[in-house]
């Protein structure tokens, strides 16, 4: 029976991919000495947010994910980020391969929202592996073994690596998903207002919101003064 262990030894953006992908440098070791014919490998990648510290600005941006910081003792828990799978070619002893992992910049996805909120440092990850190993024995027969359920590897992905990849596809930009009727209403606002870009239309809406908020504050202050 083959015995596999996994270790992430690095990561870098795929420069030639059509979509945002980071290649995780995966080192696989077979300890029994068996000749591995191939491995059908699957990996579940989870973010472990409790394994790093956060600045005050990061805490504010993570409010939607984890709530107020006094709640973080209960809410700061590992969560699923992505899946990856591939066929590993044959080897004996140790091999290193690129495990490609797709990234999303949709802010409705918790992983993308979390990563966007970080200023610097590292993203603590844990990769949980499963799949099937096909290995040849000394007699030439082919053994088919499942990968043990508890095989895993941790890795701290630099935030700079993630930003480098995203800036290659969406420089200075992000994505927001919304309902079609809301998009239609925004398109009408943009057209009737004569705004040439979505940014200028959103800036106008934000200015109106700030003005309304300021008016509410003034009104509240006047009410307090009248009451006194």
Plain-language structure description:
This protein is an alpha+beta fold and 228 residues long. It has two domains: 4-169, Immunoglobulin-like; 180-227. The protein is built from seven helices and eight strands. The strands form two sheets. Strands 3, 4, 6, 7 and 8 form a five-stranded antiparallel sheet that branches. A three-stranded antiparallel sheet has the order 1-2-5. A hairpin with a 5-residue loop joins strand 6 and strand 7. Mean pLDDT is 85; it is low at 217-228.
Integer count of domains: 2
Helix content: 25-40%
Order of helices and strands: EEEHHHEEHEEEHHH
Main sheet specs:
5 strands, antiparallel
Q: How much is the average pLDDT?
A: 85
Short description:
With 228 residues, this protein is an alpha+beta fold. Helices cover 33% and strands 36% of the residues.
Keywords:
single chain, alpha+beta, Immunoglobulin-like, 2 domains, three-stranded antiparallel β-sheet, 33% helix
Topology of helices and strands:
Blueprint: E1 4-13, E2 21-30, E3 35-47, H1 56-61, H2 63-66, H3 72-75, E4 79-92, E5 94-102, H4 110-117, E6 122-136, E7 142-146, E8 152-158, H5 159-169, H6 180-192, H7 198-227
Antiparallel strand pairs: 1-2, 2-5, 3-4, 3-6, 6-7, 6-8
């Amino acid at each position: 029976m083959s015995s596999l262990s996994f270790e992430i030894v690095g990561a870098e953006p795929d420069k030639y991919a059509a979509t945002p992908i980071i290649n995780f440098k995966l080192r696989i070791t077979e300890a029994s000495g068996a000749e591995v014919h191939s491995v059908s490998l699957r990996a579940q990648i989870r973010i472990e947010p409790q394994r790093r510290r956060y600045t005050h600005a990061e805490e504010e941006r993570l409010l939607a994910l984890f709530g107020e910081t006094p709640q973080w003792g209960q809410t700061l828990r590992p969560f699923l980020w992505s899946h990856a799978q591939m066929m590993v070619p044959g080897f004996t002893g140790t091999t290193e391969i690129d495990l490609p992992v797709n990234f999303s910049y949709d802010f409705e996805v918790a992983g993308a929202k979390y990563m966007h909120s970080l200023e610097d440092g590292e993203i603590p990850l844990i990769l949980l592996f499963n799949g099937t190993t096909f290995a040849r024995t000394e007699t030439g027969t082919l053994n088919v073994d499942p990968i043990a359920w508890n095989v895993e590897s941790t890795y701290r992905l630099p935030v700079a690596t993630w930003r480098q990849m995203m800036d290659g596809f969406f420089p200075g930009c992000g994505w927001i998903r919304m309902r079609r009727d809301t998009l239609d209403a925004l398109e009408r606002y943009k057209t009737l207002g004569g705004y040439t870009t979505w940014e200028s239309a959103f800036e106008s809406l934000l200015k109106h919101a700030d003005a309304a908020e300021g008016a509410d504050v003034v009104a509240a202050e006047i009410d307090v003064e009248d009451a006194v």
